[in-house]
Design goal:
mainly alpha, 3 strands, DNA-binding transcription factor activity, about 10% strand, DNA binding, transcription regulation, ArsR-like_HTH, about 160 residues, Arc Repressor Mutant, subunit A, globular, 8 helices
């Protein structure tokens, strides 16, 4: 759905043509709408293509580069809330991809490590992830990719600086 079709629907629903045009027809609104659309579909398509969610793959990748790490340190590195990390790790553990144990010196700390099966999953996911990214960025030139990276980084910085 484009901004224009969204505007039409809002005009029909609200009967407020002037407000809708001012609020939803701006270039900024179209950018926000497109970003939200990409955000909605990218996770679903990524998981369908790779067989694993981006969050779980990120956790496995971090563990791939660490021998063993505390669950709280892992949570800080991925910037996902602790309950979500726990859920992800429980599912990964049930699939044999990670193992968790209590730290002997401090039973409050849970240590996490990648299993051999998890290591194999990371290695097999690399090709799937590369294929997904290649298809996602088809018809986007190298120059456009560099520009997109720059623009998104600046937008992320701007968003982080917004006072709530």
């Amino acid at each position: 759905m484009t901004c224009q079709s969204l505007i039409y629907q809002l005009i029909v629903l609200t009967g407020k043509k002037g407000w809708v045009l001012a609020s939803f027809c701006s270039e900024e609104a179209e950018i926000l709408y497109q970003l939200q659309g990409v955000n909605k579909v990218i996770g679903v398509k990524f998981e369908a293509c790779t067989g694993i969610s981006q969050s779980r793959l990120e956790l496995l990748t971090l563990l791939y580069h660490a021998d063993e790490i505390s669950q709280s340190d892992l949570q800080k590195k991925v910037n996902i809330d602790s309950a979500a990390v726990t859920r992800h790790l429980k599912q990964l553990e049930s699939k044999g991809m990670v193992s968790r144990r209590r730290k002997p010196e401090d039973n409050r700390i849970t240590l996490v490590r990648l299993t051999d099966q998890g290591r194999e999953r990371i290695e097999s996911s690399k090709k799937e992830k590369e294929r997904f990214m290649k298809e996602m960025l088809a018809n986007v030139s190298a120059e456009e990719r560099r520009l997109l990276i720059d623009v998104l980084a600046r937008m992320r910085n701007n968003i982080n600086n917004i006072e709530a």
